[in-house]
Amino acid sequence: MSDGPSRPMRIGRISYTNAWPVFHHFDASALREPAEIVSELPAALNRKLRQGEIDMAAISSYAFGLSSESYYLLPNLSVSANGRVQSILLFLKSPLEQVINGTIALTTASATSVNLLKIIMEKFYGGKPTYEDAEPSLGPMLENADAALLIGDHAIRASWEQHGYRVLDLGEVWNVWTGHWMTFAVWAVRREAAEANPEAVRAIYDGLIESKRRASENLEPIVEKAMQQIGGTSEYWYNYFANLCHDFGPQQKAGLSLYFRYAQELGLIDRPVELLELPLPRVAENFI
């Protein structure tokens, strides 16, 4: 799908805090080529990029796997964690032994987290739960379920509540079982957009890398924004962002490749996934 070469490049921005360090200092209006931002939840960005409604985006890793033949990965950009991630959380109303063959209420906001949960439940714990989609509100989710999966800011807010439920951090569970990083989101560009508008894509990429660099040097404005919009303390948010990695190097790629292999073994993806990056000169590495 294309509106012609004159329209602005459309960039999908995840609205969750875990992607803020890459986007906070990014200014589409300052680019040499015209561009516009589309801010959505991951599921909506996944769909819009797949259908060509946007040209490049931060998307769920699983969504990249489903359509990898249509995309390039943007180098050195991801949302990853080597252990606790604090925003991909399974709240257990029942004992884990019951949950693994019980009913789990799922947020529909991110396919990566849902399928990571299935890998954990079925491959690691040997269970076979029933999964039910639900709106992301902990109380109603647990009315008729043994556990509930929340992600992003919904998970963060629920983790602050005095609900008494046991909480599993899926990033931590993945790391304990595999020893690997887990990559929850990647930045991808449609191949046709990259080939038709290489200069625009490069300008956007450089802007994202520069935003990530500036955020890594000073998290204070992002922490302040999180406190204002979501709540919590500065200590919580500094710790939260410290647990996240927005690079995409060999360790992150190894963990993501293992995730895709397990997903294929469980029939969640029907073919191997190639992590093909956008061919770029190695200029931007100075920013990493």
Automatic annotation (TrEMBL):
One Pfam family matching this protein: VitK2_biosynth
SUPFAM superfamilies recorded: Periplasmic binding protein-like II
Keyword Calcium appears in the UniProt entry: no
UniProt EC number: 4.2.1.151
HAMAP family xref list: MqnA
PANTHER family (alphabetical): CHORISMATE DEHYDRATASE
Family that this chain belongs to: Belongs to the MqnA/MqnD family. MqnA subfamily.
Protein name, entry field: Chorismate dehydratase
Species per Swiss-Prot/TrEMBL record: Cohnella yongneupensis
